[in-house]
């Protein structure tokens, strides 16, 4: 495809992940053709020398930093060292080497877990670092806070235009459906699907079902990311401040985990009982983002939760079918 004149050379870090793949879809839909991607095998982002060589040779104009090690409560509790080390190394290498190579525009994607566990609701951007974090994902949250401050520090010292967006809980095509290491919606979609297929009389959900969560369809998140990246400098600066330059991205609405489980069950077509195991951790009681700043800048989410869940389940079924076909093609094991 022929590239347009003055087309920016855009690097999407983490293009195979949930958010990165959605950002690539949005960029392509908007007519961008000069998009640079690298798989984990092609570029190890925790290796500074590899990242430095990449930026030295690729002449990147814009960076979407969507690469991250992510997971749910179980994964965060089980691999805290990996969650803090991998994420801090990726962020430090990409931001620093982008600056060294003269990249002026970068968008860092964080997480709403950066906010205090008992923050006032809805959560405003200035609540950052005003309380104790949720213990179950503190290492990951600390890494994401460091990423925000990294961008702010380079802006202050070097005059770069590095911005940060903080999404609420995301879901949609490209999600991780691992039975133990995935987030709540993909985990529930898989669990209800398997329960329906196996005729299970009940599905057991971790926790009491009372915590409230906000969920954003990933293509909405990608659209918001591109929107924020392309805001004029003076507009972005007028709606943020140097010490809280990040912007929340969400729907402004939340549901209980019990309500979510019921909705997922309906989406999948499961007819059994839903049981909550209150002996398991609930995590943060409530986490609803204040999205008034982004709304004032002219952007709002457009995908209702029911519609997003339907699309997410369709994507899960497609992925499940591909994996099943691949498993059927595997040669049978030969007994020794």
Automatic annotation (TrEMBL):
Its EC number is 1.1.1.271. CDD domains: GDP_FS_SDR_e (cd05239). SUPFAM superfamilies: NAD(P)-binding Rossmann-fold domains. Residues 10-235 form the NAD-dependent epimerase/dehydratase domain. Catalyzes the two-step NADP-dependent conversion of GDP-4-dehydro-6-deoxy-D-mannose to GDP-fucose, involving an epimerase and a reductase reaction. PANTHER family: GDP-L-FUCOSE SYNTHASE (PTHR43238:SF1). This is GDP-L-fucose synthase. The gene is fcl.
């Amino acid at each position: 495809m022929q590239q347009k004149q003055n087309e920016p050379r855009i690097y999407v870090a983490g293009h195979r992940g949930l958010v990165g793949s959605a950002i690539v879809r949005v960029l392509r839909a908007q007519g961008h053709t000069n998009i640079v991607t690298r798989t984990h095998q092609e570029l190890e982002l925790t290796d500074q020398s590899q990242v430095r060589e990449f930026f030295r040779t690729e002449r990147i104009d814009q960076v979407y930093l969507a690469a991250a090690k992510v997971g749910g409560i179980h994964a965060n509790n089980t691999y805290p060292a990996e969650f803090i080390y991998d994420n801090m190394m990726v962020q430090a290498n990409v931001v620093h080497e982008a600056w060294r190579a003269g990249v002026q525009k970068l968008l860092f994607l964080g997480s709403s877990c950066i906010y205090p566990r008992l923050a006032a609701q809805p959560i405003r951007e200035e609540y950052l670092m005003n309380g104790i974090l949720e213990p179950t994902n503190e290492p990951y949250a600390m890494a994401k806070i460091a990423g925000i401050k990294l961008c702010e520090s380079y802006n202050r010292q070097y005059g770069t235009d590095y911005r940060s967006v903080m999404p609420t809980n995301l879901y949609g095509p490209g999600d991780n459906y691992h039975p133990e290491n995935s987030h709540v919606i993909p985990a529930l979609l898989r669990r209800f699907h398997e329960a329906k297929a196996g005729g299970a009389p009940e599905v057991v959900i971790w926790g009491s079902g009372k915590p409230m969560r906000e969920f954003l369809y990933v293509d909405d998140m990608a659209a918001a990311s591109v929107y924020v990246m392309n805001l004029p400098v003076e507009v972005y600066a007028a709606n943020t401040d140097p010490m809280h330059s990040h912007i929340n991205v969400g729907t402004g609405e939340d549901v209980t985990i019990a309500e979510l489980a019921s909705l997922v069950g309906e989406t999948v077509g499961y007819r059994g009982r839903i049981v909550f195991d209150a002996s398991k951790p609930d995590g943060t009681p409530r986490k609803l983002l204040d999205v008034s700043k982004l709304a004032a800048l002219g952007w709002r989410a457009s995908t209702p939760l029911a519609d997003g869940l339907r699309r997410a389940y369709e994507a899960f079924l497609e992925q499940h079918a591909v994996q099943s076909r691949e498993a059927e093609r595997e040669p049978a094991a030969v007994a020794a």
